[in-house]
Amino acid sequence: MQSSSTKWLCTALSALALTALAQAPSIAKDPAVIGKGSTSDKLDIVNELKRRGSFHKTLEGLSIAYNMDNQLKGRGPFTFFAPDDKAWGKMPGEDQTSLFGNPKRVSEVLSYHVLKGQRINSDAIAMQKTLQPMDLKHKITVSSRDKNSKKELYVDKARIKEADIQCSNGVIHIIDQPIMPILAE
Hints:
about 35% helix; single chain
């Protein structure tokens, strides 16, 4: 049997807890909120790549490239041409080792894969001749080819093999090989 002071304390604490919950602001859906506390229906670009599981080399590069991964978790919007692991496999091993061993170079290359401040779907890309990547020094050439009565879209020499993957902070287009800017000596 509880004493009257214990009952009173339990009642008071319950009332205090209910009052605090009633006064707490409700959580609004904000596509810019990402991570564990996210209320967004979609993942950010980096977490979508992680979820898909075939972008280990790209994610490694984004981490090496002066924490570019954190930038692609930000508000955006971004358009990201993402080479999957199979795409990186087209690059000779020595070239990969050299590239990923140099944070400045990997940053230059991966910056070339990002359009900052833009969420561009494949239909809009197809209407362009060039795109301005985040590095601002180069331009990505856009082209298309008909194959088996189906139009394939290319950025530089890379074919977009899966387009328009919507994320909370942008869009991903999966490409079949990395695209390379002309690197400074």
